[in-house]
Each structure stands twice: as C-alpha cells, then as structure tokens.
C-alpha cells in the first residue's frame, strides 16, 4: 500500500516512534508483570483478619516440595515469620494475621523466586464482631484476644464442608440460627458408617478407590488403619495437593468466622479408606506444613491434631509429638491445640496441649468428672464427645436431648464445657454429626439458653465449689475472695425445696432456672436462713447473687 | 337347812366323798398346772412354720437376765438347740422352725424352772405358699429352701410397723397389691427427718425424752451417735425388754410371711435419740440374743446387722463381728445375713455375710457396678439403697420413677438386684420409705413387670455377658454351656435398630420389651444375621430365646 503526500522522513520517524513505544511497552509490561501481576497485596487489612499476598513463582518440578517461600512481617509490636504455600498455576501465597492495629512492612523471599518482594500495609482497628483469636483465660476458661469472654458451646459436623453445595449452604444457615460458636470438622474426607459416598473434593491429586463395593456392613474392612493397609486401587500423589480442596475449606472457615464460629479443625483422623491416614512421615510433615501455611492466619482456627488418635495404630506418640512440634514452630499465632481420644486420653499434661478435648470414657459418667479433670490437668476441659442426641444404632449417638442438656449443665457447673452433636436416622443418611444440614433435636434451643446463662456470669467462667453431696454447685472462677454469685444444679434429682444460709448481713437475689423449659423465675431477695421452694421436677437450677451495697 | 329322810351315814359318806373329790381336784389341778397350763404346745405344725411351746417359770429377780432356757429338738434328720426367751408375766417361750416334715421330740430345760419339759409333735407338709426360708443359690442368686426361685424385688419402710394401727393395716394392704417380696425395716424406733414422733411402742421398759423440743432443723443435735451421747432425760432399763414391742413385731413378721414377703430386719441403726444405739456390750449382746430367740424361727426373717453401720462411730468392727458371732451361734436356721453401709462398705468378703446389701457410693453410677461387685465378692448383690422415687429435699430421695426403674433393670441384667423406696412430700409427713401407707410413685407397676420378666428366666437368675460396649447384656446364670436365653437392655440409649448374629443353624425367638410401658411385642423367629428394629425410645429391651429342637 502507498500513502500519497507523506514525506519519507516522517514515515521513518513514525516507524522509529512505533519501535520506541513498542520497546517502552515491553519494558513496562515486564516491570508490571514483576511488580503488579506477579506480586499483589492489599494496602489495608483489619486487625486479626487475613493479610494475603500473591506472588508468581517457579512452576517446574513439584512446586509443593521443591521450593520454599517465607514472609517476614514487621511492625512496632511484632516481627513474625510465616511460611507461604504453593497455590497452583504458578502462584504462591503468603498469609499473615496482624495482631496489632498498626503499620506493617514485609518481605517475601525463598527459592520459589529469584526476586525478593517487599511491601507495606496498614492493619486497621477490628470491627465490633472481631475480637481476635480465642485464648485460654484464667487457667480453665477461654477469652478472645481482646478480652471478650468466650464460652464454648460447640457442635460436631465432621465433614459438613465436603457435602453438596446446597447442603453446605443449609448447614451455614442452620449454624447462623444456632447457639453454636465452635464446630469440629475434618480436613480429610471421612470414611465411616453413614459416610460412604465420595466427598466434595480430595486433598491430593489422584484417583479414589471404587466406592460401589462398600456397604454399611463391610465398610470397616476398608478402614485403612484397622485393615493395616490402603485398598490397592487408590492412586494418590501425596506430594501434590489438590489446591481446590484447601481453597474450598478456606471459604468455609471464612464463612464460619463471619458467623462468629470457631473452626476446630481436625487435622488427622482414622476414618479413611484412601490412605490419607497411612502416609509416611515425610508426606505427613508436608501436609502439616501446608495446612499450617494455608489456615493459620484465620483467627477462628483451632487445631485438633486428631480425632480418636488412639484408633490410628499406624501413628506413634513420637509422630504426634512431631506434628505438635511443627505446629509450635510454624503457627506464630499459637492457636488452641488439642488431641481427642477414643478410649485412653492422650497425655493432656503435655505443654503443647492448650485444652483437654475429651471423649467420655464411661457410658454413665462423663460431665460429672470435669472437676476431677480440672484438678488433674489444670487446663480448660472441653468434653467434645459425650454421646449425641439421636436415635441411631450406635451407643455414642442415641441419647435424648434431655440427657445431653443435663450433661452440658453438669459440665458447665463443674467448670468445663461440653459439645453437641446430632445423629437422627434420615432417609438419605444425612446426619448432622457428619453432614450438617438441619437440626431436629430438642437440645439446641436449651443450649442457647445455657449459653445465655453463662454469658450472664460476672467472670470469665464458672468454677465448681463445695456444696452438698447431692448438688452441683458453681461460683465464679477467681483466685481470691467471694464473688457473691452461686449456681446450684440438681440434674435428675427433684428436690421440692432447698435451704440456704450465707450470712446474716447481705441480701441475696434468688432465681429459679428451669433448664429444660428455659425459664428464669425471679424470687426476689432473701436474707439469713432461707428456704427456696422448687417444683420437684428434674433439670432445675437455682441462681443466687449477692446484692452489692453502694 | 335340814334334809328329811336322809340317813346320817350317807351324809357322812357325802362329806367324805366331797373331801376326796376336793383332794383329787387339788392334785389334778396341781398336776394340770404343772403339765398343761405351765407347759403347752401344739401337736402339729407345718414344716417351716413356727413351733412354739410355752412354759411357766421363775419371775423373781430379772427373768430377762437371771435365768436360762433352751430347747433341743430332735427328728430323723436334725437335732437343733435353740434359746428360749422370757415373754413376761412368768411365761417363757421356746420357738423352733422344723426343717423337715417328720416327727419331732423335744426337751426344754434351763435355770428358769426346776422341771425339764418334754414333748413331741408332727411337722406336716408345707402348703403351696410355703417354700421355706430364702437361701443363696448359684453363688449370686437366691432360692427358697424347697428350690423355688426367689427374685428379690425389695422395698424399704424403716418403721412401718411402729406407726398407728390404721397405717399399719394400710401398709399391709398396699404390700398385698405390690410387687415387693422383701421389706427392710427396723426393730428399734427411728429418729430422723420426717420421723420425729413417738413410735407405736418401745423395746425397753422406761421413759423416752420429751419430743416437743424437736424440730426438722434441730433433730440432728439429738442423734445419739453424732452428738456423742444420749439426751439425759431418757430413762430406760436396757435389761428389761418391753415384750409387747417384740410381740407386735412378730405379728407383723407373720403378716408379711402370709403375704409371701421376706422381713429384712434391721437389728441396729444410728437414727436414735433414746440411746438404743449407745448401749454397752453386755446390753447389746442381751438384745441380740433376745432378738434371735424371738424372731429366728420365722422363716421369712433376714438379718441386716445394721443400716448405715458406718454412721455408728460408737460401734467398732470388733462389735459387729461379735454380733455376727452371736448370730452364727444362736440362729440355727442360718438366715441370710448382711450389713448395710452409708459410705464405705463393710468388708463383704467376711464369711458370715451371705449377700452384699449395698448403698450406692456414687450419685451417678450404682446399678452399673453390680457386675464389678459380683467379681469382687462372689456373693449375691442387693442394692438396697440407690435413691428413692420421690421429691423430698434430700438427694437420696428424689429421683424419678423412670430413673429408679432403669437402675433396677441395670442391676438385674448385671446379675444383681435392686430395692425400691418412695419419698414424696406429704401433708402429714407420711413417707412410704419410713412410715409405709400408700404408694404414689410410677415405679411399682414397672417393678411388677420386671419381676414377671425375671420369673420367666429359665434358671435361678441372670448373669451379665459380654455384649457391645453400649448395651447391658444378660443370659442365664449357669456354669457350663449356652442357655440360648439372652436379654439386651438399652437404658437411656435409644437405638433404632440392632443387628444380631448367633449362628447359622438355630432359630431365635425375638421379643421387644418396653420396660416403661410394660409391653412385650412378639417379633417371631429369626435366623442367621438379623436386624431387630426398635422404636428409638429410652428404656427398651430385647429378649431372644433359642428355639429348642425336638
């Protein structure tokens, strides 16, 4: 093509200019790719929320094992190093939870990239629903990092997040309207009675065994730990994570966080037909490091090293202690740590265990032992399994709502906490305990009521006191003095009255609590020796508070 | 007055004849007084009933302490020596229970009289309602002496026999229509909460303290053992029994016998404001000897050395062992012997203890320990106190009928027995547990149902077997072989089904027992692997019996 009337030197200039722009563009693109697309992060993040930066890095070989990535975050009050992780498609991420509302700068380095990335951001004040991570408080109790009390009323839905999208949405909706502020669930999928279908996703790249061979009767034959091996047609690469699995769980942790619910993550468990419980030490450690790098920055995470650790003969105490050591080294936020038993307790006196996550060892007595456990371990006692409300064939899953609520009250007044679960038979075998979904039991409403009563205690929690042999008696946990607050619980006993005497001088406000019918009856003020009449029914409590002068 | 026509020698004859008759009459009277009025006894008595002979004897001094009386009874199969006792008004009695239906002769001697009395009688065949005394059978169970099984379903009315005549009659009428075949009650009157009035009679001659000083609040101050002494205005002669008291109790033992109810006599107890629990060893021994001499011949007597022996600090183990030695020496019929605790058990392995009469040591677990107690003591386990159905203020007296019945079933399937009691508040403070009267609870009807189920076991009792961890399982107590009889109890658990497999060959008859609603549903015969559907309710049991071929 030929342009008439254009001077040939202008044409040359144009070509040169185009070349220059092309070169400039190339340079800019190159710079942009390095500093913007290859490295992105927000400039503001709320205190105790997740700060996350994304970096492009090496993709060759196996990025999950071949390269390192670490971030170091520095502010006036802290200097924290965290591991990043490979997120697939050449992307690496580093997450960090700022513990202070102040300016942070950071540096990302490691073998994943030849570049060292630096940046800064502002951690802003936490909003009203953000109290930080939950910590042990007052030896036996919990509080958020900002000091707000936290009274755990937990539930268990082992793999609710690995069900259909619809069911997950339903679970979140149910949780939103429930009293539960802690939920126990697994990172690995679950193979167990009522749980024989394929999960939403798998944690590794590979192929699961054919589940059409499974029945309710033969499922135990495929339980790796019990059987002593992995069914052979499983085909997994335990060194390549399925990042979608973890990304999905992160979404669910966020959803829970937004509902004010702690995610008590069960990192390992025995209910496995795929071999995730049978990996070697190298792969276990890779998994632990990956889990910590991905999840630790979420403020609502708790670490449950295992569910029923003692049903995993393939793991030794040395293994559990090694995982705990990784946690202590790699989780800079010191999230709560526990390990849950089937029969024998793990040694809860180990220093890395922040609280006792207990399954009852006796059919008839569980919550009644909380005060003994307190004495023994000097840590918060959380009874995470004391049988579930339901009607399935298994003895751990068929007590009444009344009995479950009684156990909660016993645990509470003895200075500990219990957890809920629900196991009603369902036409599609959807049980809250494992799948989430809807709650059908009678206990949740009563547990909301208990949570209300707990929230009305003046301190961070209840402590058992010496009452009569035939009552459970609590006061406020404190090291000195008399709080003037007393709770008396009668469980399955049905006294028609009780007599009280504290002193001659003070007035005491008396309330009758019907823990089942969820009523609190005001009986006004009493003084000296006084008698409190009761309806002679089960599940009654009395709350007495001293009137403070002045 | 003058008689005409009568010869004077005839008149003389008449006078002489009258004199002779008068003398003969005197001699006969004298002989009759010695051999008939002074010594009387029946010529026939039913086997295992009370043979009793009455002798006049010395009245001077203190006949309770100054004289001895003993009977020796001889038949083809036995020669038995028994003590007699002073019955007041110059009368002594000797009682004897013939253990065989055969001819007996006997001799009564002792310092009570200068004469030795002899006689004979015929022990006749027992009638259909008379099975003899209850014995230990098959190590852990009971049977009557004639071999008929005895499944104790006991109750407790501590001093029912020391209430008004009307109330005693009402108690007997209630018992007649109840499932109870054993009742625990005291020989001494009782001083305790709800029991502050004067009893029907006292065991000694003397005068009680003024009871107008007593209140529900201060009664413990008058409890001799706790207070360390006897209120001073009591005035008793511990060496002179009030025979009416004992005669009255005998009538009540007979009434119970006629209703087929064992009289579990509590010989000593701590609930005392009169000093009967504080006597010296000499008076204690006198009492024990008197009690044995009077009551041992009643076939339905059991000896409970004490209720809550450990609340009697004034008595030592040496004392209890001495009483036991008296019992072993003086009760030739070897009635059942036990000693009941408040907190620590007496050493139930002592050879004189025939069965463990247990008060629960834990609020939450009691019947659940029966199988452990069996292992430990190798004796029948009778849980005589596991809290009563009721609504009084005390924790031992305010559980529900449901919970009490559950404890009975737990005890039964673990190879032991439980006892009932009822403590509902009452406008006149009349509580079954102490006074008898009417039953108002929900448990008795269910205990009748349990007794029916027990009566349908093929052997002398149930033995626990190893079932699943979450069920209580029983079979027939036997040393060899498989009875083909199985009971499964689920208590507060609510399974919707359970799976069974015994063998491939036999057919098994399946019944669903609703222990609360008292129904037995026939599910026909099953074979091989089979599933039993259940309603997912509390308090269900399954009874399975193998069809015997041929």
Can you give a write-up of this model?
The structure is a homodimer of 550-residue chains. Chain A is of the alpha/beta class. Chain A has 11 helices and 31 strands. In chain A, strands 18-17-16-13-12-22-20-19 form an 8-stranded parallel sheet. A 6-stranded antiparallel sheet of chain A has the order 24-25-26-31-28-29, with helices on one face. In chain A, strands 2-9-8-4-5 form a 5-stranded mixed sheet. Chain A starts with 7 loop residues before the first helix and ends with a strand. The relative contact order of chain A is 0.09. Residues 1-5 of chain A have low confidence and may be disordered.
SSE layout and pairing:
Two copies of one chain form a homodimer.
Chain A: H1 8-37, E1 39-40, E2 44-46, E3 51-56, H2 63-66, E4 70-74, E5 79-83, E6 85-86, E7 91-96, E8 103-109, E9 117-124, E10 134-137, E11 141-144, E12 154-156, H3 165-176, E13 182-186, E14 204-207, H4 224-227, E15 235-241, H5 243-258, E16 262-268, H6 281-295, E17 301-306, H7 317-330, E18 337-338, E19 356-359, H8 370-377, E20 381-385, E21 389-390, H9 401-413, E22 417-420, E23 422-423, H10 432-435, H11 443-455, E24 462-464, E25 472-476, E26 485-489, E27 497-501, E28 507-514, E29 519-527, E30 529-533, E31 540-546
Parallel strand pairs in A: 2-9, 12-13, 12-22, 13-16, 16-17, 17-18, 19-20, 20-22, 21-23
Antiparallel strand pairs in A: 1-3, 3-7, 4-5, 4-8, 6-7, 8-9, 10-11, 14-15, 24-25, 25-26, 26-31, 27-30, 28-29, 28-31
Helix pairs in contact in A: 6-7, 9-11
């Amino acid at each position: 093509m030929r342009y008439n009337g254009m001077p040939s030197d202008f044409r040359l200039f144009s070509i040169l200019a185009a070349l220059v722009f092309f070169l400039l563009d190339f340079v800019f693109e190159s710079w942009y790719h390095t500093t913007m697309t290859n490295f992105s992060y927000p400039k503001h993040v709320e205190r105790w929320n997740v700060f996350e930066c994304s970096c492009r890095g090496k993709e060759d070989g196996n990025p999950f094992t071949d390269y390192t990535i670490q971030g170091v975050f520095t502010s006036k009050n802290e200097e924290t190093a965290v591991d990043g992780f490979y997120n697939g498609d050449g992307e690496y991420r580093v997450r960090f939870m700022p513990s202070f509302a102040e300016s942070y700068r950071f540096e990302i380095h490691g073998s994943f990239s030849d570049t060292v990335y630096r940046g800064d951001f502002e951690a802003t004040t936490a909003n009203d629903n953000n109290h930080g991570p939950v910590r042990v408080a007052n030896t036996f109790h919990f509080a958020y990092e900002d000091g707000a009390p936290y009274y755990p009323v937990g539930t268990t839905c082992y793999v609710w997040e690995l069900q259909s999208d619809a069911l997950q949405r339903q679970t979140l909706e149910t949780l939103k309207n429930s009293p539960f502020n802690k939920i126990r669930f697994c990172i690995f999928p679950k193979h167990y009675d009522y749980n024989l279908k394929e999960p939403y996703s798998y944690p590794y790249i590979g192929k699961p065994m054919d589940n059409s061979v499974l029945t309710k009767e033969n499922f135990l034959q495929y339980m790796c730990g019990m059987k002593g091996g992995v069914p052979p047609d499983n085909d997994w690469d335990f060194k390549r994570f399925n990042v979608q699995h973890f990304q999905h769980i992160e979404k669910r942790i966020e959803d829970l966080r937004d509902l004010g619910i702690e995610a008590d993550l069960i990192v390992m468990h025995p209910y496995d037909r795929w071999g995730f419980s049978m990996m070697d030490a190298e792969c276990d450690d890779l998994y632990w490091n990956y889990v910590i790098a991905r999840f630790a920055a979420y403020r609502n995470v708790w670490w449950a090293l295992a569910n029923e650790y003692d049903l995993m003969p393939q793991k030794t105490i040395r293994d559990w202690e090694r995982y705990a050591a990784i946690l202590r080294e790699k989780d800079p936020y010191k999230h709560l740590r526990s390990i849950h038993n089937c029969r024998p307790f793990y040694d809860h006196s180990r220093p890395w265990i922040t609280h006792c996550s207990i399954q009852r060892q006796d059919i008839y007595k569980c919550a009644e032992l909380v005060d003994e456990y307190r004495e023994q371990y000097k840590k918060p006692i959380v009874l995470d399994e004391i049988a579930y409300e339901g009607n399935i064939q298994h003895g751990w899953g068929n007590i009444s709502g009344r009995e479950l609520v009684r156990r909660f009250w016993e645990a509470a007044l003895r200075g500990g906490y219990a957890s809920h679960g629900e196991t009603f038979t369902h036409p599609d075998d959807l049980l809250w305990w494992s799948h989430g979904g809807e709650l059908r039991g009678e206990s949740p409403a009563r547990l909301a009521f208990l949570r209300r009563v707990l929230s009305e205690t003046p301190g961070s929690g209840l402590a058992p006191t010496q009452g009569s042999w035939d009552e459970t008696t609590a006061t406020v946990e404190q090291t000195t003095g008399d709080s003037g607050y007393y709770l008396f619980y009668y469980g399955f006993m049905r006294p028609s009255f009780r007599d009280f005497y504290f002193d001659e001088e003070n007035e005491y406000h008396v309330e009758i609590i019907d823990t089942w019918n969820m009523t609190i009856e005001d009986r006004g003020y009493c003084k000296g020796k006084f008698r409190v009449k009761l309806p002679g029914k089960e599940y009654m409590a009395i709350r007495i508070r001293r009137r403070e002068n002045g």
